[in-house]
Amino acid sequence: WLLLGNLYFKRDRDNSKAKFYYKKAIEYRSMRFFDANFNLGIIYYNEGKLDSAYIFIKAAHDIKPEHPQTSDIYSKILIKQGKTQEALTISSKTAGGNEMQKTIELAMAAKEAQNFTEALNLAEKVLAQDPEKAEANYIKGICLARGMNKIAEGIPFLEKATKKITTNALWNEDLAVAY
Description:
The protein is mostly helical and about 180 residues long. The protein has helices at about 1-10, 15-30, 35-45, 50-65, 70-80, 85-95, 100-110, 115-130, 135-145, 150-165, 170-179.
């Protein structure tokens, strides 16, 4: 069942058939089947079905908590569900000394979920360690300017980010819109 699921998921990009076969694999081998749970979780995550993604990614994480991709997706799902502290705990266990980058990724996920308060808090956590971090300045600036309608407060952070990384067209566009 797993091989058929992989065939439809990875080669044919047919998510409905892939989900069917991954569920069959899980039924056959129980919920303790890492690959089927992980791939099902990814499919649901990519479809924006966070509740379903949560079930399968959590099952995969419970089987292999040290698996970095599972922890990354699991943390992003938790952030989008507003469970920031749990997401940070999961993320820190597999950060391998790269906690700042993991926190930035979680802040981006929160911003994408339009949870601007959480994104801002996470960005400020990074900026407390490295005030020059471009990604954190961008997140703080965009959250203030667009998410909280505090345009004048957000512009300096957007400017700082775009001066650090001049090639990011989205950041430059966001700064132009804020002006």
